[in-house]
Design goal:
Chains A, B: This is Arginine biosynthesis bifunctional protein ArgJ. The structure is a homodimer. Chain A is α+β, with helices and mostly antiparallel strands. Chain A has helices at residues 50-60, 79-97, 118-130, 137-143, 193-205, 237-257, 276-287, 290-297, 303-310, 373-380; strands at 9-14, 26-31, 37-42, 66-70, 104-108, 152-157, 163-169, 182-187, 211-212, 222-227, 265-273, 323-326, 329-333, 336-337, 350-356, 362-369. The first copy, chain A, has ten helices and 16 strands. In chain A, α2 runs parallel beside α3 (118-130) and α5 (193-205) packs across α6. Chain A is globular.
């Protein structure tokens, strides 16, 4: 499945020696055509990794013939040398695969502030190219893992004969705008770059952009959508947009489900908002409130922490009309003590917080994780 | 010392039975005059506890004759009943101490969303009044602790004959705007309410408002400054402002030093900013970045996390000109790899992060803590 579920794509994942562990760390995804249409969405972080700066330019041309992805190093905050390394990566891939370096996207993930071992990465591209296969999607998904415990793939198929497939990595530094998250989606639908861009932006706005595991926005987030046109079918625009959204949503949920140290997935539903922006702002403030995240970890329906987080936002609400439910029990009504908190059952991994602003009819859902001692352990030792 | 360091004040701290532990939980601070001037600064959280709503009104009159403070319950998100409880507290104190309930400030701290046990609190006021003493400041400071491991007091004395003293509590839900922090400052300087207000606002802006332990703004933050005029000396305004700032700064540092679960105090200095607002915004984004806080806990000079946090702000900067020092070692220069990170010694409790935006001459210092497994443990079990 993964990026090779759609016709017209080959992929490979290999161990190039970039990671000290010796594990898989280099992936190639190649669009075999006939089309080379592509769109991309990148991190909103103003400190952008070299591969993001590079790939943003590539996407502007509307064509991507191949994507080179590496784990084991983010190539972020590496200055001119880092950018030259990304450029050399694209040049090498173009030399090996044919075509222009200007149509090769590059994505990197791992530690910020270290140079990539180009003496290993460049030979790795040759090795990966030799292993390209129409069944290589799984191996590519495995090669981009960092602290991910599982690889993430998803697929949606249309009765009209086309397919959207994808892979993702991301477990930490996982917050919107976008969430160190690399995603490559592929489709054999016959869609041009503009159509891909519309579908991708609409899909990421309500999926990856509403995932907030730890409030920390990455320097490297990249979501690419490549179309080969190999199905020979021009998709219905609405159906195609929904297929892309479905695959993005599936991958986004997998990211939350595998977040560093997490023991709970928190579905934050903000309802009764005056505007969608208000709902998103409130949802994000809950997603980033460490005290609330600790309470959820402790299976403690501490709704006071929900209200104190709502109170820090600029959303429209009256403190005396706020209602909060945890797993369906309205523990806070009209800004004060509601139903018996002992009725809340929080034993399962998914916890649902519903915050009713009682101001209107708009809503938004944000996915977050609890804050755990395991998260602290994993992230206090990561680079050492 | 504490709130009775200045002449004209008595205080007491007793166990009223509000806390299940049976520990001290009720404090009284009484201004014996001749002046009853006062100023106050309160939480910027839009969800405000009943005692905050009450005391904001009291402060508007410019006079406070006494402050009743309780731990063991925040009386926040308790609706009309909670406000009636605060009102009854002020009425009881007025009946016992004399004077008007409209000049009695009330402050509460503890769990949000539970009603106070008024059958214990009201008799406690009588008991505390019977123990009022010019040496009672220490006991008052002890009675307002919640998860604080130590009580916090500070004092500054002027050669002109007046004194500023104070007490504070706060260990979690500790973030600006203001930081569950209750602070009572007293002075025997002969200053009116307007002068107190100017000094207090100037002092809190660069002290309590620049403490950000866990990014979570409380519903109950209250800082009061009471003047008795008992020294008979009208203070020089600049000297008085500096004394108030010194006491606030001392107490703010004590709050950070005792923050829940913390093993490191992080001094975040943002320099080279175009504006002070930019410096504060960048400082806060570092203070609230969980990945950076975990890295500091792990004694890992992970400057990439500093840059990724700066990148989420709207401050003026060029990513290729950013410089970062950790404990004086410039590990990041011009947005890229700088001096050897192995030179950074992070064994001690205080860690200094200097972020140079290379855009101007403005600066700001924010104090924060690391994120630890102990913080998670303490806050996943607090209400259960």
């Amino acid at each position: 499945m993964s990026v090779t579920a759609a016709k017209g794509f080959t992929a490979a994942g290999i161990a190039a020696g970039i990671k000290e562990s010796g594990g898989p760390d280099l992936a190639l995804v190649v669009n075999e055509g006939p089309r080379l249409a592509a769109a991309g969405v990148f991190t909103a972080n103003r400190v952008k990794a070299a591969p993001v700066l590079w790939s943003e330019q590539v996407v502007k041309g509307g064509q991507i013939s191949a994507v080179v992805l590496n784990s084991g190093g983010a190539n972020a905050c590496t200055g001119p040398r880092g950018f030259q390394d990304t450029h050399a990566t694209a040049e090498k891939a173009a030399a090996v695969l044919g075509g222009s370096a200007g149509e090769i996207a590059v994505a990197s993930t791992g530690l910020i502030g270290v140079y990539l071992p180009m003496d290993k990465l460049l030979p790795g591209i040759e090795k990966a190219a030799a292993e390209l296969s129409a069944h290589g999607g799984e191996k590519a998904a495995i090669a981009i893992k960092t602290t991910d415990t599982v690889h993430k793939t998803a697929v949606a198929q249309s009765a009209a004969g086309w397919t959207v497939g994808g892979m993702a990595k991301g477990a930490g530094m996982l917050a919107p705008g976008l969430a160190t998250m690399l995603v490559v989606l592929t489709t054999d639908a016959d869609a041009d770059a503009a159509a891909l861009d519309r579908a991708l932006r609409a899909a990421t706005r309500t999926t990856f952009d509403r995932v907030d595991s730890d409030g920390c926005m990455s320097t490297n987030d990249t979501v690419l959508l490549l179309a080969s046109g190999a199905s020979g079918t021009v998709p219905d625009e609405a159906e195609f947009a929904e297929a892309v959204r479905t695959v993005c949503d599936d991958l986004a949920r997998q990211l939350i489900g595998d977040a560093e140290g997490a023991s709970k997935d928190i579905r934050i539903e903000v309802v009764g908002a005056a505007t969608e922006d208000d709902a998103v702002e409130v949802g994000r403030s809950l997603a980033r409130n460490n005290l609330l995240k600790c309470a959820i970890h402790g299976e403690d329906p501490n709704w006071g922490r929900v209200l104190s987080a709502i109170g820090t936002t600029s959303a429209a609400f009256d403190p005396d009309r706020l209602n909060v439910a945890i797993n369906g029990v309205w523990v806070c009504r009209d800004g004060s003590v509601g139903d018996d908190r002992d009725l809340v059952d929080m034993r399962y991994r998914e916890v649902r917080i519903t915050a009713d602003l009682a101001e209107g009819t708009e809503s938004a859902t944000i996915w977050a994780n609890d804050l755990t001692a395991d998260y602290v352990h994993e992230n206090s030792a990561y680079s050492s």
